[in-house]
Amino acid sequence: MSRVALITGASRGIGAATAQVLAEQKFRVVVNYRSSAEQADEVVRAVTAAGGEAVAIRADVTEADDVAAMVGETERQWGGVDVLVHNALIPFDVTSFVDLTWEQLGGKLDRELRAAFLITKAVVPGMISRNYGRLVYLSTGLSRRPREGMITLGTAKAALDQFVRYIALELAPHGITANLVAPATVDETKVTGQLRTEQVRHLGATNPMARLVRPDEVARTVAFLASEESGFTTGHYLPINGGLSMD
Q1: How many C-beta atoms surround the C-beta of residue 130 within 10 A?
Q2: Which CATH class is domain 4-239?
Q3: Cα angle at 169 between 166 and 172, to 5 degrees?
Q4: Where are the domains of the chain?
Q5: pLDDT band for position 205 (50/70/90)?
Q6: In the predicted model, what is the mean pLDDT of the chain?
Q7: Please, are residues 43 and 17 in contact by the beta-carbon 8 Å criterion?
Q8: pLDDT at 213
Q9: For strand 133-138 and strand 176-183, is the pairing parallel, antiparallel, or unpaired?
Q10: Is 0.90 topped by the overall pTM?
Q11: pLDDT tens profile 25-65
Q12: How confident is the model at residue 203 (pLDDT cuts 50, 70, 90)?
C-alpha cells in the first residue's frame, strides 16, 4: 500500500515541488492550501496527469479546527498520514530591530509555533499507533545565520528548530523521525517576492554556485527524509545552500 504524505502550503513553490516529487515516488499526496485553491488544483492535476494520486484540502494550519478536519478527511480517504511535510509559510515582516514591534515579532513566533504544534499533534497519534512516521519541517539558514531585515523569520524558525529536536527525541522509540530542511533563499517563492530585485540578484551572485536554490532541489532532500531509507536519521538540520555555509 502506498504511503500517505500530507504537505502543508503545497499550492506553490517548495510545497508544490515536494508534492510532485513524492507522487513520483508513489506516495499518495495531500496538497494543503489556505487560499490558493486554483493553484492547489493545478498541482493535483499535474500529479494525476503523471499517474500519481493527490487531493487538495483547504486548511489554515494556525486554526485547530481546520487542522483536525484536514487530518480527519485524510484518514477517511486514505487511512492516515505516514509523512508530514510542514512547509506552510506563516507571514512575516521584513524589518530592522529598530523599527520592530512586539506585535510583529511575538505574532510571528506565536503563529509559527502554533502551526507546527497543531499539525504535529494531529498526525502523531496515528503514527504512534502504526509505529511509523516521518516528520519533515521547513526551516531556514536564517535561524542560525542572521541577515539584515529578517529578524522575525530567523527568530521564529530558530524556535521551530528546537521544537523539532524535542519532538525527534521523544518520538524516536516509536519509529518516528523528525528532521529540519533549511534552504538558503529559494527562487520563485513568496520569500523572494518580499525582497527587492537587487537583493535577490545579490544573494544569487554571492552564493558559491552563483545562483539561488531551486524548489525541486529542496523537494528532493525532503523526499529522502520522507522515505523509509531515512529511518535512522532524526533530529537533524540539513542545510541546502550551495556551499554558502559549511558545517
Answers
A1: 15
A2: alpha beta
A3: 140
A4: 4-239
A5: low
A6: 92
A7: no
A8: 84
A9: parallel
A10: yes
A11: 999 999 999 999 999 999 999 999 999 999 999 999 999 99
A12: low
- Laid out side by side, the sheet with 28-33 consists of 53-58, 28-33, 4-8, 83-86, 133-138, 176-183, 237-240
* DSSP annotation string for the chain: ---EEEEET-SSHHHHHHHHHHHHTT-EEEEEESS-HHHHHHHHHHHHHTT-EEEEEE--TT-HHHHHHHHHHHHHHHS--SEEEE-PPPP---B-TTT--HHHHHHHHHHHHHHHHHHHHHHHHHHHHHT-EEEEEE--GGGTS--TTBHHHHHHHHHHHHHHHHHHHHHGGGTEEEEEEEESSBTTSHHHHTS-HHHHHHHHHTSTTSSPBPHHHHHHHHHHHHSGGGTT--S-EEEESTTSS--
Alpha-carbon distance 205 to 201, whole Å? 6
